[in-house]
Structure prediction request, 942 residues.
Amino acid sequence: MEPVRFAVLGPVRAWRAGTELDLGRPQERALLALLLIRAGQPVPLSDLVAALWGPRPPRSAVNVIRRHVGSLRRLLEPGLPVRATGRRLVRAPGGYRLVTDADSLDLLEFRQLHEEAREAAAEDAPVRALDLFTEALGLWRGPVATGLAPETRALLPLAALEHERLVVVREAADTAIAAGRPSAVLPEVRRTAADHPLDEPVQARLMLALAATGRRAEALSTYDTVRERLATDLGIDPGPELLDAHRTVLIDAAPTAAPSRPYAQALPTPAQLPHDLPAFTGRRAELDRALALFPDGPGTVAIAAISGMAGVGKSTFAVHLAHRLADRFPDGQLYVNLRGYDPSGATVQSVDAVRGFLDALGVPPEHIPRCPDAQAGLYRSVLAGRRVLVLVDNARDTEHVRPLLPGTSGCLTLVTSRNELSGLVAAHGAHTLTLRPFDGEEARELLAHRIGVERVAAETRAVGEIIRRCAGLPLALTCLAARAAARPHFPLATVATELREAHGSLDAFAMPDVSVDVGTVFSWSTGALCADSARLFRLLALHPGPDLTAPAAAVLADIPVRRSRALLAELVGAHLLTEHAPGRYAFHDLLRAHSAELLRTRSTGTERGDAAHRLYQYYAATAHAAHALLAPAADPVPDPPSATAAGAVTDDRSALAWLTAEYAVLLAVVAAAAASGHGRTACGLIWSLEPFFDRRGHWHDGLAAHRTALDLARRLDDPRTTARALRGLARAEGRIGLHDQSRPRLAAALDLAVELNDDIGRAHTHRSLGWESDQQGDIDGALRHNRLALDLFTGAGHRPGRASVLNSVGWYHARLGQYREALHHCYQALTMLQELGDRYGEAATWDSIAYAHHHLGRHPQALAGYRNALLRYRELGVPYLEAETLKRMGDTHLATGGVEAARDSWGEALTLFTELGHPFAEQLSARLDDRRSGWADVGPTA
Prediction:
């Protein structure tokens, strides 16, 4: 087939084998223009009719369009028989689709270059990004579809494409200014500003580009002109972006960034700081010094590295300092505990911390790049222009914290570490602050605050010895004070004597210049516990963290939950644990080390192994129960755990809540189980988390976990487990667009399922292959794979799978325009799903039913179906699918003449898409803007 290339960014043109084609009559050119504007997406007949004739088409409109389609097909594929469909202009549900890609259509090439430019900008490659932006803008040779009659262009959806160009112009200007090359985009920004004299973001960038190239007077004159035009034409004053640009030019500062930033519309204000300690004492000199470094908030990239030995109070001090400084950073505070010296080895990697920060900053999962360096670049880009305080606790070394440093002025980073972090000082100009153990006065103040001034004053000699035995370490003093406070009549002299005589060992945590046996202090505290609390304290060292609940503690100790709550309360009272959130408990890493040391010396290998096995089985069993409630038709977990699940998981709502609360713990359990010989349990836990990964957008975590599962499955040398691992990893890869990897894995999984005579495994593989076909635009292939899955589920008597796939078969029939057949399958699915209690499946099926009714012209039934779907999606908390349904519901309202109802539905969908950062937000916004002036003249969209 001869290569064909199209252009729509300017005059509508086409070339076959390098020769430009005569596109025929005006209506044929208009038809081709709309097909090109939709860029490979299906265009319903109703849209084609509206684009050619507006609100009053002739009765012969559909037949005329079919003749035009035939002419275009023969023009693009010479020699095509009269009634043949060809391979370029093909039938689609309810209309037609022109098959194009970035190599054959300038619009798609423009979008591809835009995406590559964004990725380069996120990877801190501004010069390459600017080149890509410039190349993308160079594809525009005038307004879209130039050459068509004005009345025809007025009927085409052109506003959305012009909006896309505006977005690229703004981002190109941002990049050029930041890269110090404003002249590279100034001509384009000038032209765009002239075309859009009331577009304040574009005018602001024109001012900044002019100022950055030494044209300050012209920049100020531009502001005056725009301000006057806004007042005259719209009766409004300049907005924040224009005012910010004006202030920048007035103070004659060379602009280094535009006033907006990625995802600015949807960014929340994070407030992640842990609670400040109400009883904070001491450290007056260190606080004064730290506050003096940033009297009015930093004007450059500011970093404070707080170092000191374990137990000296670095985290407490940093949190207290952060709270003192928080009001200077109105855009929020970020916090992460990297656990760099955690005795369990469960260190939080920098890449995971960056992803956590991106989540907290409101960046949607689908906008997070796969490459860790690109993620760090995106994090810096999101922080650009914001005033955010970042607290990074317990960093291992400079490299551990480097990806978490903001890249522009306005932010403050506080870092704590046992390491002096000299690399931060040398490479980033960090201010250092080393905390020493308390001196005698500060230590007495801490003890007085906790056990009473009179008691400390009454036994000065004993207090002095206690302070010496604790070497002034705040953590050791706090633990000791907790026991002394609980025994107000216990002489402090006796406490000092017991410390002198006790034995413990945490020498590895002492600094070379400090002589202190911290283990003695902790042993004195644990020695006062009841036997059950002491045993629980030891066993807690087996929990991988970062925190735990009373049910998990009960499983570890093999005791009732009620008893575990009482023991945990005793440990908190002794300051051996902290309850950092209601019902959630955590260790200081020194205390975890002490717990692990006691576990090694005072328990048997069998006791440790049994406790770990119970713990992993508990989490795997509860996650499996949640999996069954959330996704009863999902790919099953081979050899599910036999342990009892947590009683809190009783329905889909409680399942979702438990998974959300325990998510970080479950990832840590996966790693711990995989590393300790519990590979099958780790695999089961990963597969139970699959629906949660998907619905919450944790696709990167899911990909890493499924790779672990495949590695473990291959070590187990179990074909059934390997097949399940291949399916899980393929789905995870497909979700983030790695189709070249996912399809071969599914083929391998299918071969294994056939060899094993595993019909359920075959069915799930065909479902996944169907989804892959859908992603490639092969709807016939998607239907074929789902029909095969349906036959397999039916033959195996698997009702949840059969019910779910019936809806999928119906949906693909609807996508192919076979609406009655779609309803036949979907109503069967709905009855079964209701019997099974699968509310997620019900919601999806109601949406499919509504879609089919809409295209059959049964609009009341369609609206009823969409309302049923919305009710369930809202109850289940699935905002993306809720927005999709609202978008389609708006189309149905408009088809019935319900203009206000359509606007309301699309407005709700726009809000959700915007919050999610989904690309549909821009499309829907453009649709709303495009139709505000002529709603009654616009037909429905499919």
Q: What stands out?
A: The first strand starts at residue 4 and ends at 7. DSSP finds 43 helices and 13 strands in the chain. The chain has a mean pLDDT of 84. Residues 533 and 570 are 7 Å apart (CA to CA).
